[in-house]
User: Which sequence fits this backbone?
């Protein structure tokens, strides 16, 4: 890695095999409710933002890529499955999943796309009865739990 620029934001997959960096502020942060993003993320909608190809780099590993259509490539970790990127094959920019950022709170969606497929319960989510992870898992189970998730910052490659 010969990168000398300082990243503005970093992120990566759940297992840490694939990491990336942004060297400029992302633009067009949005959620996409389209049926293809629902499938690709296994979720109600996909939070994504765009960055110029020149301001984006994979800094550890490379995503596996699946062409979900004739013009779109979706990148994901082949080891843990985390959805990472979305790219029109002829575009000068790449989309990345906001949830895979080390600090996903830093990029707030400003638009909603693909609303023809918006799930009828999507707007009800903020009003659901709420609890924290610690509040849900019994203490004895929490004590046994050892996360394998990569921490929310860059690390030295091991091994
Ligand atoms: Zn992974
Ligand atoms: Zn979509």
Assistant:
């Amino acid at each position: 890695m010969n990168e000398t620029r300082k990243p503005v934001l970093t992120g990566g997959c759940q297992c840490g095999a694939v990491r990336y960096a942004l060297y400029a502020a992302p633009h067009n942060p949005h959620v996409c409710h389209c049926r293809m993003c629902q499938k690709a993320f296994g979720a109600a909608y996909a939070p994504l933002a765009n960055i110029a190809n020149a301001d984006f780099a994979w800094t550890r590993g490379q995503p596996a890529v699946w062409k979900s259509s004739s013009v779109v490539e979706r990148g994901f970790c082949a080891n843990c499955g985390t959805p990472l990127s979305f790219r029109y094959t002829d575009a000068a920019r790449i989309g990345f999943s906001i949830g895979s950022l080390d600090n996903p709170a830093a990029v707030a969606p400003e638009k909603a796309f693909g609303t023809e497929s918006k799930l009828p319960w999507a707007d009800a989510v903020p009003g659901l009865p709420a609890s924290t992870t610690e509040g849900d898992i019994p203490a004895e189970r929490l004590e046994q739990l050892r996360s394998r998730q990569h921490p929310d910052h860059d690390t030295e490659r091991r091994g």
Remarks:
- The CA atoms of residues 137 and 143 lie 10 Å apart.
- The mean pLDDT is 95.
- Residues 13-15, 17-18, 77, 79-80, 82 surround zinc ion (ligand 1) (CB under 6 Å).
- The first helix runs from residue 35 to 41.
